[in-house]
Amino acid sequence: MYGGLIEKARDILAGSSDVVVLTGAGISTDSGVPDFRGPEGVWTRNPDAEKLSDIHYYIADADIRRRAWQERL
Q: Domain map of the chain by residue range?
């Protein structure tokens, strides 16, 4: 079905010293890592945390900028 693509991918990975895998939130949450927007998400439980991570709030609100800076100290 894949015409040797799986074997080719395996060979490429086997010859690589570094590999990066980009995934969506689903693989993380299945592993127990909390997401941001789900029912128990970081931003759901703490809506202010989302504001500290949103460029629009950051630009518009000096208090958000100060709090974002403090969080990163």
A: 5-71
